[in-house]
Design a protein that fits this description.
Layout (H helix, E strand, L loop, with lengths): L9 H9 L3 H7 L16 H23 L3 H7 L2 E3 L2 E3 L2 H13 L17 H14 L4 H4 L3 H9 L2 H12 L5 E4 L15 E5 L4 E12 L5 E7 L10 E7 L4 E6 L10 E14 L5 H38 L1 E2 L2 E2 L4 H43 L6 H40 L10 H8 L9 H13 L4 H8 L8 H22 L3 H6 L1 H23 L2 H26 L5 H8 L1
Parallel strand pairs: 3-6
Antiparallel strand pairs: 1-2, 4-5, 5-9, 6-7, 7-9, 8-9, 10-11
């Protein structure tokens, strides 16, 4: 019987069925009035859920039966650079054709542009499945965020001309930010955008590096539009339709995700269109783009981890040592349980984050709609938008941090369970190990995610969620876990308060410890909440907290001791 990467994953289905999106979809579908204009638009929330099941089932079938069987082939052949152009591997091309025929591209685009108007939460489930099938393919499928950014910031003419082509799969996108001397520090971007005052047309000149899917048809390019500027305030975002003025100079020879071309690009008097307003390139457009991309990379790491876990579980059940399957050995079974717990914790965190992002987008759109109609602001909408914005800003980097670090741990254990054969190309374990390694590097390293989450976390930004979770009735069976978790939560809050008034160097020094601890606290509450309604989650949350709470207490002890190595001590060690 053929597999289906949606139907064979009960935890993913549980997340989708339990996603609290009713109010959000009502806003997205304008009280379901869109159904009168677009045949595929839902008539009510139950109809929307049926649509999601259908779409996820279709993609799950493609992932299991078209993409995954040729994943090793896509990795082996990889993307090839020839005569200034990039050719995808044959397996990658077959996957793209399957996406087109299924009519599931343009997932989050509005109905009017041929999209499916899906919530972010549903889209991230799609990204996870594609990544489970073949990690490198996600960077082509997942860069639909480019289309969403154009939809959010582009003018009507730009959207009408470009977005339907995304929805039909005629074009794919690339996020063109990084330069040889501007990696994490995007404020240092030097690619120049020049405006011809007579014609009102822009041209770009400069070099970009490490551009994922840089051979794409549509580029969103961050460039310096303000003469004499030296910081982020001089940057704007531009749309480029790749032509002969865009030269692909090379593609990188990478450790993993071989099917995904990483390009070095040169722009020479390249025609470009301004996206949104001048000077808003980094602080508005690029940040919106990167937040979506970071959530997608979290889902990518989750998908690769799911694949690695399933390979390890199957191998451990089949491999006999000392007359019995190695899965029965306590040392191995403990690793498998750890992998399972971390994967489901990461999925819970990603879904919670996606729901907050969906809420932010929906209430932003509602606020803009009211403003355009000249109606007074609705205080309830303003309050919900503010809450969602604060949570999305904090949970997005937390998700990216936890899921990608988790992915590296899970794929490491997956290879270890395979033993020597896991190191060989004949088995998928080594491919997963290579593919996942990029996830905690690109779209902002783990260290940058810590910086992004730290400010609101120290300010007790998680309290609004944790207070809700603590107030739930968990029953007598879960009371011991709840008590232990409440104790750790109090310790976490004490750590936040301890760091709040300290100097920046001390906060940064213990930042990773605090964010790591925050992830354990949030994940544990999410799994405990699940255990109220799902029996199998009870043992899972016990296993997860037994593994992770002791380490979180150790992190708290270090933070509260407040003893960091001095500058001279660090220099002496590193000398």
């Amino acid at each position: 019987m053929a597999e289906n990467f949606y139907l064979d994953n009960p935890d993913l289905r549980f997340r989708m069925e339990g996603a609290a999106l009713s109010a959000i979809v009502d806003l997205k579908e304008k009280g379901y009035s869109t159904a009168a204009k677009y045949a595929n638009a839902p008539r009510n929330y139950a109809d929307a859920q049926d649509n999601w099941r259908l779409i996820l089932g279709i993609l799950g079938d493609i992932c299991a039966n078209v993409i995954a069987p040729r994943a090793a082939e896509a990795d082996e052949e990889g993307a090839v650079f020839h005569n200034g152009e990039v050719d995808y591997a044959a397996a990658t091309q077959a996957a793209i054709e399957a996406f087109k025929k299924s009519e599931i591209l343009g997932a989050m685009l509005p109905w009017e542009y041929g999209g499916l108007n899906l919530p972010e939460t549903v889209y991230q489930a799609m990204v996870e499945m594609v990544s489970r099938a073949e990690g490198g393919l996600m960077t082509i499928f997942g860069l639909q965020e480019i289309a969403s950014t154009i939809s959010e910031f582009g003018d009507d003419e730009m959207k009408a001309r470009v977005l339907p082509r995304f929805a039909r799969g005629e074009v794919f996108g690339a996020m063109v930010l990084t330069e040889p001397d501007a990696g994490s520090d995007l404020g240092a971007v030097q690619t120049k955008a020049s405006l011809d005052e007579a014609t009102g047309k822009w041209k770009l000149n400069g070099v970009k590096r490490f551009i994922t899917n840089g051979n794409a048809h549509i580029h969103l390019v961050l460039a310096r539009s303000e003469e004499g500027s030296k910081d982020a305030r001089g940057l704007s975002m531009f749309l480029v339709e790749r032509d002969k003025s865009v030269k692909i100079r090379r593609i990188e020879n990478k450790l993993g995700i071989h099917s995904s071309p990483t390009c070095e690009l040169q722009y020479t008097d390249t025609p470009a269109l301004l996206v949104g307003k001048r000077r808003f390139g980094l602080m508005r457009c690029a940040m919106a783009l990167m937040n979506g991309a970071r959530l997608a990379v979290a889902a990518q790491a989750l998908g690769i981890s799911e694949a690695a876990y399933r390979e390890a579980l199957r191998y451990a059940g089949e491999r006999l040592q000392f007359g019995k399957p190695v899965s029965t050995l306590p040392a191995v079974s403990r690793m498998l349980i750890s992998m399972k717990g971390e994967i489901e914790a990461a999925r819970a965190l990603i879904f919670e984050t996606s729901c907050q992002v969906d809420a932010l987008k929906a209430y932003e759109a509602k606020q803009e709609e009211l403003a355009a109609a000249g109606a007074p602001l609705d205080p309830a909408v303003v309050a919900r938008k503010k809450r969602a914005s604060n949570l999305a800003d904090m949970l997005t980097p937390m998700s990216k941090y936890y899921a990608t670090e988790m992915g590296n741990r899970v794929c490491y254990k997956g290879m270890q369970i395979h033993g020597g054969v896991g190191y060989m190309r004949e088995f998928n374990a080594e491919r997963h190990y290579r593919d996942v390694r990029i996830t905690n590097i690109y779209e902002g390293t783990s260290q940058l995610q810590v910086v992004a989450a730290l400010g609101k976390m120290v300010g007790r930004g998680l309290d609004v969620l944790i207070d809700e979770w603590e107030a739930l009735d968990y029953g007598s069976a879960l009371a011991p876990v709840r008590a232990e978790l409440s104790e750790l939560t109090a310790l976490f809050r004490k750590c936040c308060d301890e760091l709040k008034d300290k100097d920046r160097e001390l906060i940064d020094y213990f930042g990773t410890d605090l964010v790591e601890m925050g992830c354990v606290v949030v994940n544990s509450w999410l799994l405990l909440r699940d255990a109220i309604t799902l029996e199998r989650k009870r043992e899972l949350v016990r296993a997860y907290t037994a593994e992770h709470l002791p380490r979180a207490r150790g992190l708290a002890s270090a933070i509260l001791a407040g003893e960091m190595l001095s500058g001279p001590s660090r220099e002496a060690i590193l000398a």
